[in-house]
Structure formats: structure tokens, C-alpha cells
Design goal:
With 694 residues, this protein is mostly helical. The chain is built from 26 helices and no strands.
Length: 694
């Protein structure tokens, strides 16, 4: 039996026993494989198809004329090498970088085989490159790393190039243009309670030190530290001294104003601070200085938080006892949070309602409720400020704060109520006038000073009423008219059905309120989020444009080795958004409740895919080819792109490494059946790989 034919039996046996013999003995990915994302079934099916092709080609040898045997053997050889890389992908861990690289090698070799098939009739006698490649396929050993496949892939490229030589083209390893940098999908945000204060210069701090009402010893040490910082010339030393000096001066200023300290604790803090300042001036004792500063750190954090409150002198005097209480009590964080909330609430009240007067056209109930709420707000404001100097527990502050928040919210509701009533007047309710009577009762009850379940229910009634008015306001949904019809069709959006459903839900829930029945809170929430759902169409429009541009560019020739997206594979991205619109119409909660996550995913993917779409080009510019290399005149771009990809070496990934986002996309999208929705775990896993790592 000729050597070429001797390979058929092992191939057929492997195909027959594949499901039982394939095991994963190599490194697994760092992350567990998400449900529904194992590629083994798809890769196993591909291996079976490849074995069938090999069997058919091997059987065709008998009827192939001698001049065309070399071309036939090349077609078989390419598939044998493709099978070799596919087996390596199966042996690698699911979704690992090694699996992704072997998978991409397999794709490139399959395309090379298809290209050899297309030119089989035109191929003449064999070339030395074909003969070398043919002999190499008898020496294949299972690769342990993707880098070991580079040499075989290079031989395939040289053999493919020899079928139609390109003068001057030097078959050296190439590097196609790099993928564009990933956009910053998740910009970092500052911590919520941080109040950063810019560092002052040593010269500025020297002036501030001389005005401090602190002990002579502390002032002397601070001045010495400032002098040392002023004379520092080495940048790292200057930065360290300036940072330490800023911290020390801020703490000393707090001590100087007796903020949150007793005479005894102030003396101890001043001694620790003076010691820390003295130790900092000696670079050999910095570690000891840092240890001393750590004992002062809680007080320094308290001062930083107080600085962020931007207290006026009067407010500082009023709340100084609360700050002192916060330093020594386990309820300190609650007390400080209450003061911060109060200051914001008082500022918002002063800017919105301090000079409020109800219009003469208002109903008597509305005028009276507004006056009562203003009076109650003023009373509880005075009560909180009176409780601050003699605070004994956080409840002394949180109780009046809760009442302040209630009456502020009530004033906000009452201010918006007339317009809401005008909007809802277009919606008929029965019995006639019932909604108006319930509204009057709710206005009176919610402005009461009595804390009761009746007051809470009345406030909730007004909140629901305003929510329905917002949903009724047709001006909240102007975006649909600006969305192109093809986008509406692609995402299965029917404006007339959405509008009819919206009006039906509003009428139904308003009837509940008029009849003194609780509304359906799930449907109220759905109505409130409908404008956001419609606004998502703007993101969907950008996403669709990015997908279309990217796929059109890649269809002309994809120069990248890391990203191979088959035509139409991104279309299922629309599925979740389409499902959210359908869920709104069909009263299905599951899909609609997932909508906020869907929107976030669409925004993330739009940013990323747009960055790809703006960087695609059929081939790299000539300057990126090897010296003396040139591309043939038009009509052969796809062949030369494929040769370039076969010649490009992949990096050798670390063990247990997960595939980066581009290779992950290539793996998953290329193995999904056409026109099927993504597995539920695909998008979250994609976003995890797309997000920048800390």
C-alpha cells in the first residue's frame, strides 16, 4: 500500500471512535467554561466532516490522472494538517488561548484547502515546495504548544504560494496590522466617600504652619519638615516629603480648631504628630514615621470627611459636637452620614422651596398642603440643629432627618402635581371624579405631621400618579420617529403596537388608583422604563452600523489573524433587545427585567465593534511587507491575505490562560449554528473578557 493511502485507515478509525477517545489532558482555562459554551460538540462535528472529506479525496486517487496527482495530494495534505490542528484544539482546555490559536490555525488551513480545491484543475506538475510539504505531513507529532504549529503553517503557505509564484515575494513570517486598542469600556470612578484635597506646596504650607494655634514643639517640628521639603531636589524625595507635610498640616489645623478633640486627646495627638514629623525628616526613619502616622490616621480621615462637607463657620460650630461624637462612638459613621444628608437636603430646599408660594389658581387643598409641608420642614430643621449640640445617639439626628426628607419629597410631589393632573385628564376613569377625590385626600394626608401608615400610603399614591402621568406624556417617546425603518424592523419594533400597549396599561393602572385599589407595581415599573427601552434604539442603530461596516470590510479580506468573524454571526446581538420589546407587549416579565443588562451589553459592544469597524482594511499597506515583497495586481488579494495569515506566528500563551476577547469571539461565533440566538452565557462572558483588568 502506498504511503499516501496508508493514512486512510487511521483516519477512519479515529473518526469512528472520536467521541470515546478525545480527552482534555492539557491545561484548562483560568475561568470555568460558562454553561452552553463548550466548543467540543462543534469541534467534534467539524472533525467528522473533515474525515469524510479526507476519505472521499483518498478514494478519488484511483481515477486521477498522473499530472494532477500532485494537486490532489496537496489538497489531502492541507486537510491532514488542518485535522492535526483541530485535534490539538480539542485537546486544549475549553475557551483557552491555546484552543483559540489552534482553532484559528485550523480555519486558515481549511481556507487554504478550499483555495487548492478551486485551482485543482489548473494545477500542473508538482513543485519542490509541494513535495516538501507532502513529506512533512508524515512526520507530524501532536503539538504541545501553538508555537509548534508555526513551522507547519509556514510550509503550507510556501506550498500555496508555489502554485502561482509571485515574483519578489519573500516568504518570511509577517505580522499583519495590529488590532485597534480596546476602548476603555469601564472608566474608573473615584470612591463615593472620597474628598480629595490637592496637595499644597511646601512654601504654602510653611505660611499656614505659622498661623496654627498648636504647641511650640509641634510647630517647630512642622517647620523643620517644611524646610526639609523646600530644600529637597530629588523628585521622589520631594514628593514623599510634600505628601507627609500635607497630611501633618491638615491634622494640625484640625487640632488647632479643637475639632472633635478633648484637651487630653489633643495633647496625645500633638505629641504623636510632632514625633512623626521629626522622624520623617530622616530618610532612615521613614518606616517609623509611617507607624506613628497610622495612629493618627482615623482622625485624619475624619478631618478629610469634614473638609468635604464645606461647612460654614456657623455650621461648623453647630455640628462640632456631632463630629466629636463620631470620633468616639460606634454610631459615628451613621451620625456623619446624617449630617452630610442634612446639609445636602437643606441646600436643595433653600434653592428650590425657600421662597415658594403657591399660585392663586391652585386648589385650596394644594395651597394648604404646601403651607403645611413648608412649616413642618422648618420645624424639623430647627429640631435637628438643636439636637446636634447635645447628641447622645445617631437617632437624635436620623429621626428629624427622616421627617425632613418626607416633607421635602412632599413639596416636590405637590409642585409637579398640577401638570400631572392636566396630563391625566385625557384618560377617562370611572366613576367620574373618583380620581380627583382620592387625590385631594392624598394631598392632605401626605402633608400631615403624623407618622402613620395612612400618610405613607397617601405619598405612594401621589408617586404612582406622577409615574403614570410621565408615561402618558407622549413627548417622552419622540425617538422612535427618528429611527430608520430598517432598524425598527430588525429589532421587531412596532411603534403603533407600543403606543397602544402603553395607553392600555396607563388606563388600567389609573382605574386601579381611582377605585382605591393598589396598582400592579410590575406594570408600573415597566411603564417607567419604557422610555429607556425606546432610547436604546439609538444605541442599536450605532451597533447595527458598526456590525454592517465591520462585516462588509471583513468580507473583502481580513488582514487580522486574531479576529475571524463569519458573515452574519453578529446578527443575533439583536435578539435580546428584540425580546425586551416583545416582553413589553406580551406582559412577560423575565425578558423585560433583563433589559437594563441588555442595554449595558449593547453599549459596551457598540463601543468595541465601532473601534474595529473604523480600522478594517482589505490588506496592510505595502510598507508592512518584507523587503522586496510586493502584492500581485488585483484579483488575488484574498490568496495573499491567507498566505500572510499562515505565515504569521502566534504568541506562545502562558499555561491556563483564557482566550482574549478577539480570539474568544472567533472561537464562539465561528462555531455557532447560523441564524441562532447566542447562548445566554455568551454575552456576559464576552463582556468579562472585554472589560479592562485592574
Amino acid at each position: 500500500m502506498p504511503p499516501s493511502r496508508s493514512r486512510l485507515l487511521p483516519l477512519l478509525l479515529a473518526a469512528a471512535t472520536l467521541g470515546l477517545t478525545i480527552t482534555s489532558s492539557s491545561a484548562q482555562p483560568a475561568r470555568p467554561t460558562p454553561p452552553g459554551l463548550s466548543l467540543r460538540p462543534a469541534l467534534t462535528a467539524a472533525l467528522s466532516r473533515l474525515d469524510t472529506e479526507l476519505a472521499d479525496l483518498t478514494l478519488s486517487r484511483a481515477g486521477t490522472p498522473e499530472p494532477r496527482l500532485a494537486a490532489l495530494e496537496f489538497r489531502i495534505d492541507l486537510r491532514i494538517l488542518a485535522r492535526w490542528t483541530l485535534l490539538a484544539a480539542l485537546e486544549a482546555g475549553d475557551l483557552s488561548d491555546a484552543q483559540a490559536i489552534f482553532f484559528l490555525r485550523w480555519q486558515f488551513l481549511l481556507r487554504a484547502a478550499a483555495l487548492a480545491d478551486a485551482h485543482a484543475a489548473a494545477n500542473g506538475p508538482g513543485t519542490p515546495a509541494l513535495a516538501n510539504f507532502h513529506r512533512a505531513t508524515f512526520k507530524l507529532k501532536p503539538p504541545s504548544t501553538p508555537a509548534e504549529a508555526d513551522a507547519q503553517s509556514k510550509d503550507a503557505a510556501i506550498a500555496l504560494l508555489s502554485l502561482r509564484p509571485t515574483p519578489g515575494f519573500d516568504a518570511k513570517p509577517l505580522r499583519p496590522p495590529p488590532l485597534p486598542p480596546r476602548p476603555n469600556i469601564r472608566p474608573t470612578q473615584p470612591p463615593p466617600d472620597a474628598h480629595p484635597t490637592p496637595d499644597a506646596s511646601p512654601a504654602e504650607l510653611s505660611t499656614r504652619i505659622r498661623t496654627l494655634a498648636v504647641s511650640n514643639d509641634l510647630r517647630r517640628q512642622l517647620i523643620a519638615l517644611a524646610d526639609r521639603a523646600n530644600s529637597a531636589t530629588e523628585p521622589k524625595e520631594l514628593a514623599a516629603l510634600t505628601a507627609a507635610l500635607n497630611t501633618a498640616v491638615r491634622v494640625a489645623e484640625g487640632l488647632s480648631s479643637n475639632l472633635a478633640v478633648s484637651p487630653e486627646s489633643r495633647d496625645a495627638l500633638e505629641r504623636d504628630l510632632a514625633s512623626a514629623a521629626a522622624l520623617t525628616t530622616d530618610p532612615r526613619l521613614r518606616a517609623s514615621a509611617e507607624s506613628r502616622l497610622r495612629t493618627i490616621e482615623p482622625y485624619a480621615r475624619l478631618l478629610a470627611r469634614v473638609a468635604g462637607m464645606n461647612l460654614t463657620p456657623n455650621q461648623r460650630a453647630t455640628f462640632a459636637p456631632v463630629i466629636a461624637f463620631a470620633r468616639t462612638s460606634s454610631e459615628g459613621p451613621v451620625a456623619l452620614a446624617a449630617i452630610e444628608a442634612y446639609l445636602k437636603l437643606a441646600s436643595d430646599f433653600d434653592s428650590r422651596f425657600a421662597n415658594t408660594s403657591t399660585p392663586a389658581s391652585s386648589t385650596p387643598a394644594l395651597r394648604n398642603a404646601t403651607e403645611q409641608s413648608l412649616k413642618h420642614f422648618a420645624a424639623h430643621r430647627a429640631a435637628l440643629e438643636s439636637a446636634a449640640p447635645k447628641v447622645a445617639s445617631a437617632a437624635d439626628l436620623t429621626a428629624p432627618l427622616a421627617e425632613l426628607r418626607h416633607h421635602f419629597d412632599t413639596l416636590d410631589l405637590l409642585e409637579r402635581l398640577p401638570r400631572a393632573q392636566d396630563t391625566l385628564a385625557q384618560v377617562p376613569t370611572r366613576p367620574q371624579g373618583a380620581l380627583t377625590r382620592r387625590t385631594v385626600l392624598a394631598i392632605t394626608a401626605t402633608s400631615s405631621s403624623d407618622v402613620s401608615a395612612e400618610r405613607s400610603a397617601a405619598k405612594q399614591f401621589l408617586v404612582d400618579l406622577l409615574s403614570l402621568a410621565a408615561a402618558q406624556d407622549a413627548a417622552r417617546l419622540p425617538l422612535i420617529s427618528n429611527i430608520p425603518e430598517p432598524i425598527l424592523s430588525r429589532f421587531a419594533v412596532h411603534p403603533e403596537r407600543l403606543e397602544a400597549k402603553r395607553k392600555s396599561l396607563i388606563s388600567e393602572q389609573l382605574q386601579f388608583l381611582a377605585s382605591n385599589q393598589p396598582p400592579d407595581r410590575v406594570k408600573l415599573a415597566r411603564l417607567a422604563r419604557l422610555p429607556d427601552l425606546v432610547a436604546t434604539l439609538a444605541t442599536a442603530t450605532e451597533l447595527t452600523s458598526a456590525i454592517d461596516t465591520l462585516q462588509a470590510s471583513l468580507a473583502k479580506g481580513n488582514p487580522w489573524v486574531d479576529l475571524q468573524i463569519p458573515p452574519g454571526s453578529l446578527a443575533p446581538l439583536a435578539a435580546e433587545l428584540r425580546g425586551a420589546f416583545s416582553a413589553f407587549l406580551d406582559d412577560s416579565s423575565e425578558l423585560f427585567d433583563r433589559f437594563p443588562q441588555t442595554h449595558a451589553r449593547l453599549q459596551t459592544l457598540t463601543t468595541y465593534l465601532t473601534s474595529l469597524a473604523t480600522r478594517t482594511s482589505p490588506l496592510p499597506p505595502p510598507g508592512q511587507l518584507p523587503p522586496g515583497g510586493q502584492l500581485p495586481p488585483g484579483g488575488d488579494d484574498l490568496r495573499m491575505t491567507l498566505i500572510q495569515q499562515l505565515l504569521t506566528p502566534f504568541p506562545n500563551p502562558p499555561p491556563n490562560s483564557s482566550a482574549p476577547v478577539e480570539r474568544f469571539l472567533s472561537l464562539t461565533l465561528s462555531t455557532l449554528p447560523p441564524n441562532t440566538p447566542f447562548p445566554p452565557s455568551l454575552l456576559p462572558e464576552l463582556l468579562h473578557r472585554l472589560a479592562p483588568k485592574p
